[in-house]
Design goal:
Chain A is mainly beta. Chain A is built from no helices and eleven strands. Classes of the chains: A mainly beta (about 110), B mainly beta (about 110). Chains A and B meet through strand 5, strand 9 and strand 10 of A and strand 10 of B.
Chain lengths: ~110, ~110
Amino acid sequence: GEQVEQRPPHLSVREGDSAVITCTYTDPNSYYFFWYKQEPGASLQLLMKVFSSTEINEGQGFTVLLNKKDTRLSLNLTAAHPGDSAAYFCAVVTGGNNRIFFGDGTQLVVKP
Amino acid sequence: EAAVTQSPRSKVAVTGGKVTLSCHQTNNHDYMYWYRQDTGHGLRLIHYSYVADSTEKGDIPDGYKASRPSQENFSLILELASLSQTAVYFCASSDPGAGQAPLFGEGTRLSVL
């Protein structure tokens, strides 16, 4: 079945620096992709959804890149600030049964 | 407004007791999920359902049962709670085939003593 590997598990950056989190997945037929943010003690909030084509989506302070050829999904926080400190999870939808597979998460710390 | 509501938000249970966690969604989603999250870790899928009156095992179903009596409601049942089941439990709903991202409830913090 699908396997989603998320790297790095922990990431510490200075305010204003960029932070890049990457997920690689194994099923080339995966077709929907999501990024979530989880603040301490809270639930998961959807940041962005990316569909089945190579594309770049930009949100507020971040960029998501999907490369289906390399089966890679990345989240780039362009100028991190302390409020971005949280856990980030990628999720991949795959297969005929629409299973959703989550990465193990990245704990991001942004220092002032 | 689309929502997933979990109850209770927190619970303390005794070892060997029965625990029922409830989830209600107003999103008209076919799929519902129960995940477990241990401190500092990711999500693990316990059970899921894509239609009322039917449930499917996820990746860690042992020690848990699920019930989906209607499209809106999905319960997780621990018949004999154990210390190792202390965790935060999240319910989610989605329509993945239509590109709907899972929408999560606020979580239930379960402590088994």
